């Protein structure tokens, strides 16, 4: 879908202005950052709650959210909203269970926490997994998907699109690290919310108002939970499977968690996560409902992936359309710069500093992190170009792949955080057995072996794998006994006392969000 002919001079001016402001904020934040390794990786642990909340949400809102969620809504209706609204109990768990543990341990990376809770072998296994997942999913996959979108919009070759995106992301990530990332993310997410609200309002107006939108849409399009007979998203698969993906994504993935690790206090970390939970309520309204609106206005699209851009071209005036292009750039760059910074952090602190040069100075640590960011960015460009030759439908498979990679990580982190008797032998075996098992099942399922439809929906399969690995870890822990080292498990009550946190801290706002979410699920079912 080449839309460059629809862009006016005003649209181009808006896009250029966006890029100038973005780079200006990025370089300002880089200058603001103190010149040491801690600032590159965790912003000197001085990040405020609103930067944390906006940046976490922005990292989540990549091209898969902006384009694919609208596409899913065009085809199936409101069911795509579950991937946003079911996140709130997982974010509550991140805020109340994982973040106090992470910040009490004063870690820089999530693999480092596992060395604190279990042993160095656990950390090494997860560090390798984290590097691969960041490079393939967060960088290569996102850059490939983003490059395809930009190529379709502007008619550029793929290599020009991905190189341009990566150049912008690297320009301030290399110099400013996490500080630059969260400041630019905050700006970009304000822009994203404003532009998406414009699209929603103008789209509703185009169909004739809220009442006509409601009455003209097929009734099943307004159902969040689909019948058990649905082949892809039966209600029980979503309820059972999403938490497995959610724990890995929200509570253990370095790219997400790193923002909270850079908080100036537990208060700012937890309040930032609370802001993310509030913003997730918006997702369904500003990303999903526009897909339903596009279905009413253009019911015969050959490719539902074009729903977002088709609606934008149809309802947005000159200038606002350029703003929408800027929003797509914002979503892409936000995800890519987050992946770059996390890749740099994990390699520098979990691999190089831990295994190669433990005495590295702060200045050399920072310089190494910058080189890793540069090399990681160049590698992601090459990988994204190679992905285009491997499988044209690869981006559509990424969500399923995540569903199969999540179970071992979710099992080890969750049981390790909640159960004192979980030990390092069980954790390491669970990770190794889990990765082999999950990758094997993923290859078989995605490859149609022994035949298509043999396995249940990937969300349900993810739950089955998680349940098996959790039971496996518990049994091995009971059979092998406690770890010999003392103090590896600290109760949450003791951690809250050490951090001087009240158990009722921020509970009232979480309760308010819970009431909103329950009400929405009742209304839309």
From TrEMBL:
One term of GO molecular function: D-glucose:sodium symporter activity
Alphabetical list of InterPro entries matching this protein: Na/Glc_symporter_sf (IPR038377), Na/solute_symporter (IPR001734)
Main location group: membrane
Keyword Membrane: yes
Location in or out of the cell: Membrane
Keyword Transmembrane listed: yes
Domain of life: Bacteria
A Pfam family that the UniProt record links to this protein: SSF
Bilayer-crossing regions: 12-29, 74-94, 126-150, 156-183, 190-213, 233-251, 272-298, 310-333, 368-387, 399-419, 426-446, 458-479, 505-524
Keywords (A to Z) from UniProt: Membrane, Transmembrane, Transmembrane helix
Cellular component aspect of the GO annotation: plasma membrane
Membrane topology label: Multi-pass membrane protein
Sequence similarity: Belongs to the sodium:solute symporter (SSF) (TC 2.A.21) family.
Name recorded for this polypeptide: Sodium/solute symporter
Organism: Cerina litoralis
Taxonomy of the source species: Bacteria, Pseudomonadati, Bacteroidota, Flavobacteriia, Flavobacteriales
């Amino acid at each position: 879908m080449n839309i460059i002919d629809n862009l006016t001079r005003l649209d181009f001016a808006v896009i250029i202005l966006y890029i100038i402001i973005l780079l200006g904020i990025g370089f300002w934040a880089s200058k603001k950052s103190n010149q040491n390794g801690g600032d590159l990786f965790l912003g000197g642990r001085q990040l405020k709650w609103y930067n944390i909340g906006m940046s976490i949400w922005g990292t989540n809102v990549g091209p898969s959210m902006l384009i694919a969620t609208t596409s899913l809504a065009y085809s199936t209706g409101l069911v795509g909203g579950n991937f946003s609204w079911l996140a709130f109990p997982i974010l509550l768990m991140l805020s109340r269970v994982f973040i106090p543990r992470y910040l009490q341990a004063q870690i820089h990376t999530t693999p480092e926490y596992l060395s604190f809770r279990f042993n160095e072998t656990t950390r090494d296994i997860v560090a390798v997994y984290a590097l691969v997942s960041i490079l393939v999913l967060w960088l290569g996959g996102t850059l490939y998907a983003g490059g395809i979108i930009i190529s379709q919009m502007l008619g550029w070759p793929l290599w020009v699109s991905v190189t341009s995106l990566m150049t912008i992301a690297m320009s301030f990530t290399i110099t400013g690290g996490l500080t630059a990332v969260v400041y630019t993310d905050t700006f970009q997410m304000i822009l994203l919310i404003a532009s998406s609200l414009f699209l929603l309002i103008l789209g509703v107006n185009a169909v004739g108002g809220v009442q006509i939108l409601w009455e003209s849409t097929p009734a099943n399009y307004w159902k969040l939970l689909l019948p058990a007979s649905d082949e892809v998203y039966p209600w029980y698969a979503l309820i059972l499977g999403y938490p497995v993906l959610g724990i890995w994504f929200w509570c253990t993935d370095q790219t997400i968690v790193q923002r909270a690790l850079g908080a100036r206090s537990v208060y700012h970390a937890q309040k930032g996560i609370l802001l993310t939970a509030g913003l997730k309520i918006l997702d369904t309204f500003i990303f999903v409902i526009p897909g339903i609106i596009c279905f009413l206005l253009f019911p015969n699209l050959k490719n539902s992936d074009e729903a977002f851009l088709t609606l934008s071209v149809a309802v947005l005036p000159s200038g606002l359309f350029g703003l929408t292009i800027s929003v797509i750039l914002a979503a892409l760059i936000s995800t890519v710069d987050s992946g770059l910074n996390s890749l740099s952090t994990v390699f520098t602190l979990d691999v190089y500093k831990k295994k190669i040069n433990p005495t590295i100075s702060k200045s050399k640590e920072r310089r190494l992190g910058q080189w890793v960011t540069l090399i990681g960015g160049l590698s992601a460009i090459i990988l994204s170009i190679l992905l285009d030759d491997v499988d044209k439908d690869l981006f559509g498979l990424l969500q399923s792949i995540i569903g199969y990679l999540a179970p071992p990580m979710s099992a080890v982190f969750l049981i390790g955080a909640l159960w004192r008797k979980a030990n390092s032998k069980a954790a390491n075996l669970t990770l190794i057995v889990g990765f082999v098992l999950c990758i094997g099942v993923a290859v078989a399922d995605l490859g149609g072996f022994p035949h298509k439809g043999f396995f249940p929906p990937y969300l349900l399969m993810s739950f089955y794998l998680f349940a098996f690995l959790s039971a496996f870890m518990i049994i091995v822990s009971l059979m092998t006994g406690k770890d010999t080292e003392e103090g590896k498990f600290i109760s949450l009550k003791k951690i809250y006392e050490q951090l001087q946190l009240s158990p009722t801290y921020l509970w009232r706002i979480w309760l308010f969000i819970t009431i909103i979410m329950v009400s929405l699920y009742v209304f839309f079912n």
